Amino acid sequence: MGGSLFSNYTWYEMWGPVWIAVLALLSYLYIRKIALSHQYRVAGEKVKYFFFAAILLYLAKGSPFSIIADDYMFSMHVLQLSIMLFVVTPLFILSLPTDFIRRYFWDYRMRNAIKLFAHPWMTAIFFNGLLTVYFVPSVFNTIHQSFLLTSIAQIILMFNAFLMWWTIITPLPEVSKLSDFTRTAYVFCTAMLLMPIGIFFIIIETAHYPAYEAVAGMIIPAINAIYDQQLAGGLLKAIQLTSYGIALFYLIMRWAKKEEDKEGKIDDESLRVVQGVVIHFPDKK
Q1: Which residues does 108 contact at the CB level (< 8 Å), separation at least 6?
Q2: Is residue 185 in a domain?
Q3: How far is Cα 133 from Cα 117, in angstroms, rounded to an integer?
Q4: Where is this protein localized, as stated in its record (predicted)?
Q5: In Å, how far from its chain's centre is CA 263?
């Protein structure tokens, strides 16, 4: 059945040559201008992050999977968007060396803009609010009728995802004014803000997306429109919580390491940290 469905599409629609060209150009520039540049020290891990993100982005937007996501299964559309927002975006940020980010993202022209748009709680509210509104049936059905509107909406979501992950990852040490505890709380609160739309998909008993309802079961006959929406909710929460869980683990481990590094150090003449407890010694006479 998959072959007969795809036979209605051209090779251009199936294999996304524009995506291949764009990602090939970005890969060339990354290798030439960043990875092999003498100006930056790029660990092999960062190069892996970049190419893994590029491959995932192509599979999500340029491969035949994008046809299924756009035309046949709402759950695959949610999976596509979840990969872009919760996996690809943080990987691209992690792939950039600190000196590169400091040079191009934290110069005097960009600094104030980033401070404004990347305000921690503003990014959390904007990103989760926009993503929730995007999936509201009346809004989604209107946007999904136009390729241009869909593209604009997804670009806006990617931009806000970038700002949110910038706050979580904090690629520049001098940028972060949040303690590790606050950033951990930020990740937790951000995860909670997207909970309502995920639960809505899972418990819903009515089909709300006509474009997908009309072709329900054409890819997987056992999945009707309602099951498709419920699967979408499960995939959204699974990918979101996995990515945030990894971020939380990283933040907690780094927080613990900082506390361990403080162990036994004298902060001033009368203070000493022992097992995470600050002990005050009387002044020497």
Answers
A1: none
A2: yes
A3: 20
A4: Cell membrane
A5: 35
Instruction: Report yes or no: 78 and 230 within 8 Å, Cβ to Cβ.
Output: no
Q: Are 61 and 83 in contact (CB under 8 A)?
A: no
Domain housing 186: 2-280
Residues 6+ apart with CB under 8 A from 213: 207, 225
Contact 235, 81 (CB under 8 A): no
Q: How many CA atoms lie within 13 A of 10 on its CB side?
A: 4
CB 142 within 8 A of CB 149: yes
pTM of the model as a whole:
0.85
- For residue 59, being part of any structural domain is answered with yes
Q: What does the pLDDT look like over 227-271, one tens digit per residue?
A: 999 999 999 999 999 999 998 888 888 777 777 766 655 555 555
Quote the tokens at residue 117: 């748009």
Number of domains in the chain: 1
Q: Which residue has the tokens 């996501």?
A: 69
Distance CA 155, CA 134 (A): 12
What whole-number distance in Å separates Cα of residue 44 and Cα of residue 100? 16
Question: Is there a domain that residue 187 lies in?
Answer: yes
> What are the pLDDT digits (tens) for 128-182?
999 999 999 999 999 999 999 999 999 999 999 998 998 888 877 666 667 777 8
Q: In terms of DSSP H, where are the helices of the chain?
A: 2-6, 11-15, 17-29, 44-61, 65-71, 74-83, 89-94, 98-104, 111-117, 120-135, 137-143, 147-169, 180-193, 195-203, 210-213, 225-262
Of 140, 154, 141, 126, nearest in space to 57 by CA: 154
Separation CA 40–CA 19 (nearest Å): 27
SS3 199: helix
Residue 150: exposure state from Cβ atoms within 10 A (0-12, 13-18, ≥19): middle
